[in-house]
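OP here, attaching both records as promised.
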Amino acid sequence: MSVRGIQNMAHMPELWRKLGWTFLLLLAYRVGIHVPMPGVNTAAMAAFFEQARGTLFGVFDMFSGGGLRHVSIFTLGVMPYISASIIMQLMQVLSPDLKRMAKEEGAAGRKKITQYTRYATVLITVIQGLGLAFMLEGMQSPNGAAMVPVPGTMFRFVTVVTVCAGTILLMWIGEQMTSRGIGNGISLIIFSGIVAGIPTALIQTYSLAGDGIPYILLPVVGALMLGVMFAVVFVERAQRRIPVHYAKRQQGRRMYGGQSTHLPLRLNTAGVIPPIFAGSLLVFPATLADLSQNPLLRNFSGWFSPSTVLYNVLYVGLIIFFCYFYTAIIFDPKDIAENLKKQGGFVPGIRPGDKTREYIDGVLTRITLWGALYISLVCLLPQFLMQYLNLPFYFGGTSVLIVVGVAMDFMSQVNSYMISRQYEGLLGKAKIKGRYGQ
């Protein structure tokens, strides 16, 4: 944001109020992270997580914003809500009734789907909360201390009730942040959790450099971190611009149209949604496996460790799938082609209507593949460096992609809000001027 933009913000009290709501709700979330669940040995969990980075627990802790590490009321974070959103979006594709409700019933239909998503969130939270209780009962710290001093039915009941209340509260905080503040509340919650873990990652990287890893690697890690961030920013801003011309048309004595513009298609249209959805889905089966006392089923969760080939293959596959799936939901080439035809616009060399739709769909399909491969590469880079090159690289992958993507989206919404308010001010002055005939 430019200096002029920052100066303009001083004259927009409504924007400052929205920003205040956003940061106040984020602060409430970060305070809740440090409110522990009853019946859990928090010291034993902290000792356990000293060795958990790069494992399934480390991935889960990243999406919960440190909630699992602190065994807090927000242990599950927003992952149940994300899983419920995935299910509802899939159901809208499979169910004609839900699809009609979303498109034809307008705000009332979207409100019903949001209500169904909340119900699904509670159901998923109950299942994951029960799995969390069983998992904690079977865990021990590196020195052999039990995570749960008094296991049993009462502990499982209290755990389910606690995480349900925490997840519902967190879901409400995210919705309030979206409606009262700036940006998407759920994305900002994940963003704040990752940013809060950056100091810990820096300290751990430095400590590893002192425990057998040469200090000369620290500049290398720093250069890689900056390189990944610059690459993410560059690709996130990349566009494929389709030229669009508008034919001249006469209305009365005036001629309209005749100008040329472009249709911008982002290389990564889906944003940070694919890695978030893919990560949450891969954690969910492992949680279900922990519900059983069967050794074979409990070993099932080990297959989904981030260090396994199966996890990485499924992760890439899910990222590619959700890139296409989410792009298809938020960008409909048929609607774009119809709107261009109604407004007299056309792509040079392409006939309006179905041919334009096919052309836009083809271009979008090709660039979405490259966007999906880019996301997969960024998300797998840290695991590859740590596992095969023994580099303590904790700043890439999903975390940097989410941080950069959410930060860019947040600043874009702030700029859009400022521009809209400036236009409203200009229109207001024009009305006043016209009213008095000056």
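Record two, same layout:
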Amino acid sequence: MSAKIIDGKLISTEIRDELKQEVENLKKEGITPGLGVILVGEDPASKSYVTAKERACDSLGIYSDNRHIPNETSEEELLSIIDAMNNDPKIDGILVQLPLPKHIDPDKVIMRISPEKDVDGFHPQSIGKMIMGKDTFLPCTPHGVVKLLNYAGIQIEGSHVVVVGRSNIVGKPVANLLLDKSKNGNATVTVCHSRTKNIKDMTLQADILIAAIGKAQFITADMVKDGAVIIDVGVNRVEDSTKKKGFRLVGDVDFEPVKEKASAITPVPGGVGPMTITMLMYNTVQSAKQRKEKK
């Protein structure tokens, strides 16, 4: 048995086609969705992500206000830029690319973004509403995982989901979303992490296994039960002299052996990654719709 590949690029394209139509409809009513993106410093991975977000905005017709500021920018300067975007009626969503330089407190930055423009879904108000099952902006990667499962026709309700990783960005929120009493939830969820004893015993119980631990090829075939659905959130660089850049990208799952046991699996790259930016665009369009309703 070889697993069905859950193609994040294809699903992302379908969602973006729908979003493009929604943006066109909003523009006919005088509303152009706008996203403010702030990048501090020269981190190569962050620059790559921001460039991809700019391209996504351009392709969908979303206005993009991109601020690339020096690494030495003070915390107060960054907070003042956020304040300006909070008060700018052309901006529906604000994203500050993480990680930030050590002299800037990321919690202060997240708290400064207006919850009405928190399209990353990181503000405590957004997280609180998500846990309560209230309407809010959902964190982009966890939301993307749920969409992948939906589009792939994977039954969530009643399934045992094992999440490996407990970060605030992926592990905790995706566990809460799948646990929620809703059409996209009602799963039984187990969360494993670096202090979990006998982690293999846990992963072997998973109907749906979500790997978000940040360790290259951590999930091996002997940790996966036959027929499980595997969602690989990890993106790791491993040395590869056969590649022009000297490295290749792999997930948190040992893909080739695992796909022979799984019923469905996401690849890396091309699985969860494209969905993260797409859900950011989705949240921005939702925020623009809310602005239209207030007019």
